[in-house]
Amino acid sequence: MNKKKATEKEKEAIEKYLFQFLSIGKSFPLLPGITNDESLAGLMGIDTEEYLSLKNSFRENANKAALELLKEDEVTDWLNQLPFGNDETIVAFGDSSTDDLQGWFEIFKYILEISVPEADFKFINSGVSNNTTADALRRMSRDVLLYDPDWVIIGLGTFDTQRLSFSPGRTLISLSETWENLTTIDDAIATVTHNPPVWITPVPVIPGLLEEMELFEFTIDERDLAGVRDIITGKRGYIVDPLGRRMGYPPEAWYYLSDGLNPSLSGHVNTVRELLKSLATAKVQE
Questions:
Q1: Which of 36, 45, 177, 272 is 20 to 30 A from 246, alpha carbon to alpha carbon?
Q2: Residue range(s) defining the domain that contains residue 144
């Protein structure tokens, strides 16, 4: 076992930012020891107790957020109108926002578990941090179709729009390829369930904060994100927050982590609220 411990600066970065997105097992499911907490803690240079404590703290944050949402009258009303059966499999297919240990899908899961205790839902979080639509498409068979889901909620597109620091003249994935990838994802979902897909649009970023983040060597332009939203709003199924304004208009820093890209817990709560509203009240696009 690697005995090297993280420095205080590294530990601070892990605790305050990196940990909630480090779902290593999703990227390397066959790696020996990938399900062993001690091994994973060692990879991060922290003690097993610290690892488990951090993991539990994010889960508790998501649970508390769910409990607060359940106090809202509108949320209670929407829960009574959701289209789910009581024994269905729900897969979330996305990038960092989905992968987040205290993200929207974890909050959504707790809301359903608390409010419908008699149900036998199966929740699969198939979010992988920093995934483009091309990355997601490559793993779709293993991470979505294999589960024979009844419902698939997709939150992709943000990382397609990266403009790398050494090549700012183009996005990492062209808009036409994003369209093709999302269309292929849609077609694949239709082979395993008759229920319509649920699409969550990407939200804007806060450029000043994103540029200050040492871990990133890219920028994201709102005009590129708007193009992705246009593609999504033309898809069949439920469209959650078509204009991408759930973080405020203009977006408010309170709803983001320090990178200006990934949602804070409050930002994720906004996404869950919009998701519930759309599932309960929105007209399904054919």
A1: 177
A2: 61-281
Token readout for 231 is: 């593609």
Write the pLDDT tens digit of every residue in 14-43: 777 888 988 888 888 888 878 888 988 888
Q: What is the CA radius of gyration of the chain?
A: 19
Asked whether residue 6 is assigned to any structural domain, the reply reads no
Neighbours of 272 (CB within 10 A): 25
CATH number at residue 201: 3.40.50.1110
Domain presence at residue 35: no
- What is the domain count for the chain? 1
71-93 pLDDT per residue, tens:
999 999 999 999 999 899 999 99
Q: What are phi and psi of 25, to 5 degrees?
A: -65, -25
Model-level pTM? 0.94
Split at pLDDT 50, 70, 90, the class of 285 is confident
Nearest CA to 93 out of 198, 179, 23, 205 is that of 198
pLDDT in tens, 264-281: 999 999 999 999 999 999
DSSP secondary structure of 187-256 = HHHTTT-SSPPEEEPPPP--HHHHHH-TT--EEE-HHHHHHHHHHHHTSSBEEESTT--TTTTTTPGGGB
What pLDDT sits at residue 1?
Answer: 47
As given in the structure block, the two tokens for residue 88 are 């269905």
Distance CA 25, CA 84 (A): 29
**Cα–Cα distances in angstroms (integers) from residue 140 to residues 38, 115, 137, 177, 221, in the given order:** 29, 30, 5, 16, 27
Tell me, yes or no, whether 49 lies in a domain: no
What phi and psi values does residue 103 have, to the nearest 5 degrees? -80, 180
Residue 284, C-beta contacts closer than 8 angstroms, at least 6 positions apart: 196, 236, 237, 238
Give dist(CA 202, CA 266) in Å, integer. Answer: 16
